[in-house]
Amino acid sequence: MREPMLQLLPVLALLGGCGTVLCGSANPDCFVDTGFDSSVRPAGGGLIFYAGEAQTSGGHFISGHFGYDFTDASGNSLCTALSQWTEGGGAVAGDCPDCEWSFNLSLANGEAIGDRCDEFEVTGAEWDGFTASWGFASTYEYETNGTIFTLDTVLLYYSRESGWFPLAYNYGSRIYNTGNASDFAFHRYYSYLYYYP
Question: Cα-Cα-Cα-Cα dihedral of 110, 77, 137, 146, to 10°?
Fold first, then answer.
């Protein structure tokens, strides 16, 4: 059992201009007035999710994608930026706890699809060239502050600093991932953004 970490993967730094402001804990523009003092104020609030899917068979990785899904506040997709997952060669980093599969996967051939991709300055290639160890567990338990949480349909990621930890998962009535070890899709909240019409 491991305590989950919230410092995940590369920081999304691709929304610097064109009327888009990425708001997360590291962006001071979201906490001061100066970013929104002009007469032009953001009209739309959107959400950014880690998103993708993976297919496996007989202990082999078949295909998959990983990237971002940008949605409006109602969950309607504005832009998806996904790169193709392929086996990256080399050994998986350590034993993945409770995993039904784990692979060393590389990302390439990214593509951005959606009406807002150009405005958000998303090319789809943001993850191209990234290789890491990933795993899938039908159920996964971790302990934090003396409480054990049971997650299901879990995508795990291996970090050199933290080891294996859950990146995307279902918990209780919060259902974001679907499928099983041979074919599953995931969706995990990352941050939010403002955009202009």
Answer: 120
Q: Nearest 5°: CA angle at 167, between 57 and 24?
A: 145
**174 DSSP assignment:** B
DSSP 8-class letter at 115: T
User: Are 197 and 79 in contact, with CB atoms under 8 Å apart?
Assistant: no
Exposed, middle or buried by CB within 10 Å (0-12, 13-18, 19+), for 3?
A: exposed
Interval 117-163: pLDDT, tens: 998 899 999 999 999 999 999 999 988 899 999 999 999 999 989 89
What is the pTM assigned to this prediction? Answer: 0.77
- SS3 call for 34: helix
